[in-house]
Amino acid sequence: MNTDIRYQVMWNRLLSVVEEQARTLVRTAFSTSAREAGDISAGVFDLDGQMLAQAVTGTPGHVNSMARSVVHFIREFPVHTMKPGDHYITNDPWKGTGHLYDLVVTSPAFHDGKLVALFSSTTHLVDIGGVGQSAEGKQVFHEGLFIPLIPLAREGVVDETVMRIIRANVREPVQVEGDVFALMACNETGERRLSAMMAEHGLAELDALGDYIITRSRAGMTAAIQKLPKGTWKSHMRIDGVTDPIDLHATVTIAEDHIAVDYAGTSAAVPFGINCPLCYTEAYTAFGVKCLVGAEIPNNAGTLDAVLVTAPEGSIVNAPFPFPVTARSTMGHMLPDVVYGALDQAIPGRVPAEGTSNLWNLKLGAGPGYTGPTGPAFMVTSFHSGGTGARPNLDGLSATPFPSGVRNVPVEVTEAITPLVIWKKELREGSGGAGRFRGGLGQVIEVGRRDGEPFGIFATFERVKHPARGRAGGENGARGRLSLASGAELKPKGFHVVPAGERLVVEMPGGGGYGDPADRDSAAAQRDTALGYTRE
Amino acid sequence: MGEARLAVDIGGTFTDLVLETPRGTQELKLLTTPEAPERAVLEGASAILAAAGCAPGEVALVVHGTTLATNALIERKGAPTALLTTEGFRDSVEMAYEHRFEQYDLSMQRPEPLVPRDLRLGVRERIAADGSVLLALDEDGLRATARGLRARGIVAVAVCFLHSFTNAAHERRAGEILAEEMPDATITLSCEVAPEIREYERASTTIANAYVLPLMGRYLAALEDGLKAAGMGCPLLMMMSSGGVTTVDTAKRFPVRLVESGPAGGAILAQAVAAENGLDQVLAFDMGGTTAKLTLIDALEFQRSRSFEVARAYRFIQGSGLPVRIPVIELVEIGAGGGSIARVDALGRILVGPDSAGSVPGPACYGRGGVQPTVTDADAALGRLDPSRFAGGSIGLDVARAEAAVGGAIAAPLGLAPRQGAVGIAEIVDETMANAARVHAVENGKDTAGRAMIAFGGAAPLHAARLAAKLGIAKVVVPVGAGVGSAHGFLRAPIAYEVVRSRHMRLDGFDAAMLNALFAEMRAEAEAVVRMGAPEAALTETRTGFMRYRGQGHEIAVALPARAFEPDDAAALRSAFEASYTALFGRVIPRLEVEAMTFALSLSAARALPGRVPDPPPRAAPAATGTRDVTDPATGATEPAAVFERTALAPGMALPGPALIVEDGTTTVVPRGVSARINALHQIVLEAAT
What we know:
The structure holds two protein chains of two kinds. Chain A is of the alpha+beta class. Chain A has twelve helices and 19 strands. In chain A, the strands form four sheets. A seven-stranded antiparallel sheet of chain A has the order 2-1-5-4-3-6-7, with helices on both faces. In chain A, helix 4 crosses helix 5 and helix 7 crosses helix 10. Chain A is globular, with a radius of gyration of 23 Å. By secondary structure, chain B is of the alpha+beta class. Chain B is 31% helix and 27% strand. In chain B, the strands form nine sheets. In chain B, strands 13, 14, 15, 20, 23, 24, 31, 34 and 35 form a nine-stranded mixed sheet that branches. In chain B, strands 3-2-1-4-11-12 form a six-stranded mixed sheet. A four-stranded parallel sheet of chain B has the order 6-5-9-10, sandwiched between helices. Chain B is globular. At the A-B interface, helix 1, helix 2, helix 5, helix 6 and helix 7 of A face helix 3 and helix 12 of B.
């Protein structure tokens, strides 16, 4: 067979190998975000730590971050010291994927007795101790157990001391231990599938195939970038922050063969767990760019350096140790909008308006220490979203996440496993920014407790003071709002108790509009009115 | 009444008929008549009866499957439908999963709900998760709403209230009120069509049922009348997606259960072929013009599922269609068929499908204006197809057009010889199918290696040997009549019905009395349906619990004993769950609580699968009718392959590859290193040459 076609077939196979690795993990993992949102990642690497293939999974937060983590492992544990059955682990936010909740396991893969590759996988844990899902830790030390890069298993024997320490530090020891085993098992699945593929194709090592994949992908990214105008553009977006607003500044340079994004001028890190380690900033920045440039090119070492991300140390998008980072997605999810503000100047007519971007997850709970000793204790997270920004030729999506890739939890499931009652969950009429194309609508959720006991909310909501802005003459989306049914407004960040008998009302933001509202197609405008998407 | 049995499968393009009489089997394929689908059925029936010399009165049973319901959903040609929901939840079906199913596509669109927002109306009422009433049903408000809908000419109504699967009282009362206020409307209640937890899927299923109900009711009535008028007053049974058949009355109430009946028929055929060949682990491979479908069959049982997505609008991606919660034979469907279009992307990679050239303009080699290269064009350029025999000679293939399309769009940009471009297309489409099969298997805790493959559908026998090699499969069986496989399957399907109920129960709160009452109710409902079609037969009951560790988001199917439960059966349920969990994931999680969310009961009229057929004594194969130069994608080498007519091959004959076995509906490719033999049932069996 022609060599080119042979390599193409093997590339497809390698993508299938990591897909099987990822599916194994999704099926066996425990945390809601892993199972419902595919908040995991899986990939195969060469012996220099260059990523050859990554499974397409739910959330972009691992796009480049997991790829970089393997290099840290190799530095700590040189490949020539690795033996079959070894596994290495970390949840270092700065060397892994951005917060302690994400556990990364890297494992060597052998074929015919020879080390040929490394498999790495990440999943979001149910719990990691510390202050839990709250973003109120002041330092990473408050946020739970910190596992440096260490061996987890040697030649097939799991280090029981490590497992005991993990179990002793988390609220759900059985589930977390289950996730650790799931990570090892999925890497082993990858190793078996890779070995079978190499046997079938008569490969002794992956060097030539790896070169092919990386070279092709790099060339593809370069070609995509070369079609863009060259230059430097700047943008600024102000968001709510915690006590003071946060200014996000991006300088985007389109060069011959790469796009550089620098966040100079961005506000400083804060004593609240919404800071991003640089690896996570890089992940969402690269994702945002790739949606516009080279979307069809698989992620690997060849695409990794096509988007170069820098940020001043100490800023909220390059928060150093030991700043708190648990809810780093609150900031990371805003970054594509900032980058798009600059890219819209470079390639007008192709970039969507700003959206809600920040997830409006309901992290609700009750129990001793939070709401008092009465009534059943519970803790639940359900994923929800406001509207996305209008596209240059389409309305925004209502109640849909972007850039995150999560999905919601059904109301009936939440009610079956908690004492909560969700009284309303409906599109928020009139919340999409007007425009030639309308922003996506937010939604309204009203929630109370059946037994009338109090419950708490851990809020990390954005776009309450500063709305998603329209583009090209489109209007802003509606601001979000958090309140009690009796009227009192609640702050969008921090822990609040909803008093006994009260209901919480969550009004999620709408996306920005695109283009002058006067140019909206009259049939579309009539339909909006007839169906109640807009208000008179 | 005689002993003849007639199967009819209406597809989007063709209506297939199979007639089995004591004297033999007849097949017929004719074009579907979309404006009045019963016309093709009746015309076909009279033609096939005439050809078989069979009087209409001799037909003892008609089994029918149709894509009409599916097509109505895909093409949005159902009745204007209203949805009544719990107040505050009318947008659930629009928000769907609050998800982008395609991560990188900024232009992604979710499918529009079948019911627009102004026809989705809230009703004041509320039932809690435990079934207690938080707000009574506002009957006056509902009556006013119903009168409004009537005034707007709405004749189909779906009702889906929160937690109605636990307490259906409000939905049932609403059904009564609607019947009074809207006597001309058909009403679908979610507690009847899909009494399962998860409000979006339940509402989506209820709407889909309401939306196709008027159309399917009219069609089925017309078909019954037509068959009677033609002298076939025998029972008519309908094929369901579950692989069972049911009465027309049930089909008229729950037409949503009829979607995917064609693929289910194919899987039933594969199951029978597996039994005839004594095959324990099977991958059924059905490849047609637009898609390929892969089904795992273990110990003669299918993988089963209770969820399916109709009308996946976006490259067959999960989440881009309308979910329906109905019992289905689980299969993975990918956009890879004979009509799938190949292209070269910006990276110089060959991509195949999921977009298809369809039948118009069709592949370039059809000479009907298609210029983009398709899988069929690659097959033609590889020399696999006899231009004069394609589709029984009804379409004359133009191989030069195939070569030009493959050469221009694939080979030239990659700097390859035209045949090597065809090799690339074939390899990539086979690899795509192999990867889908592997991922599907791993998701079910299974493997493809070591299985046997049963290949049917017009394009499957062309690709089966290479796909099998990629999957570590050593044996391929190509049944007779592979081009009308689904209709053959219909005649082998059992009369069966499945009923589900969601009831959240932690095993530490195991309630035997509740469970026994629940299963008794489900059995009564299933039995009422099955007895309509099988008044006398012995019945087989199977029970399934959908269970999970507390905290997990997805349940797994656990086989439960079909007997009364005792108060101390919690331990037995836990060990049954752990056995299933281990089979899927290779381990259990000690100390973690187990809970059940949903229960299913399936009742089936006993039906024996065919026994294993002994190997016939060897016979010498006839001389080849000729040779064709065929390129083998595995090696890229071109060499002469012997050509045989399938009808000239008799049981016991064997022939070595490279060879082509040609028949009206398809061609079986026998590569070098593989040999083909004909078993006692005239099936082709491909195995590694010894």
